[in-house]
TrEMBL record:
InterPro entries assigned to the protein according to its UniProt record, in alphabetical order: MetI-like, MetI-like_sf
Extent of Basic and acidic residues compositional bias: 24-37
Protein name in UniProt: NitT/TauT family transport system permease protein
Spans traversing the lipid bilayer: 59-76, 117-139, 151-171, 177-196, 273-294
Amino acid sequence: MKPVAVEHEDLAGWGVKAPPVRSARRDRQDWRPLPERRRPRRSPKLLPIRTPISAKGKWVLYVLSFAIPLAAWFVLSEAKILPPEFLPTPEATFSKLVELAQSGQLWPNLWATSERVIYGFAIAIVISVPLGFMMGTFQAAQALFEPIISLVRYLPVPAFIPLLIIWLNSVDEPPKIALIALAVVFFNTFMIADVVKSVPMPMINVSYTLGARRGEVLRRVILPHALPGMIDAIRVNLAAAWNFVIVAEEVNAATGLGHEIMQAQRFLRTNEIFAVLIVIGLVGLVLDVALRLLRGRVGRWVV
């Protein structure tokens, strides 16, 4: 490319009047200076967003999550702000827990409650997992089932207790198991459907491009990608099953942890109620940790 001065000389040689060359002015008032680039702010050292913490720090926080409530319980109970009938001391509670375990009163009730949870939760899983998988995969299934499930899931589950007794013609185990299944099935269905919907559509399209059939896409793409999230949904709703089994055992139950709580409530044995609640919490914690480990093992490839 010729410089501007040479081009002007060429134009003058041909008898063409060249336009005047305007020099760039740097003192124009209408030119706005470029904004200064700011240095990126450093992330705060305290509670950074989604930044991994060390294993030591994680274990310290684990211990604090139990130590802080336990210390608050000890201080409030020892300060006698509330009478022992309302807030027993940790010493009285753990003494009662040891007594229940040594006397053999705890284990039959724990097994009876666990058995009801196993049966009711298994029924809910058998129904909700395939149904949620269909709703998350096929829009026709979602359009068919979502409206009615959205309506039913807002109905209070304890209100179904008299209906279940009438429908099943029993006041023994069937209504209790059905109540647990009813409390879990609809929420688990929606959570499974949401997990399946989160499978990236480009991944599915690439599978079709590579020659995969629909069955192979369902079995080898959607299911493996959604499986960790499905385990998380099951883990969350397992807690709901343990919550509602106590409600179910308040109706004509001769055994179970819920029955134990009702018997202790009649005589204001709050230390026994606290002891049973601790047992339920420990069982739930063990199940939660087990499902977390399972989730981490089957979902190493999913972020």
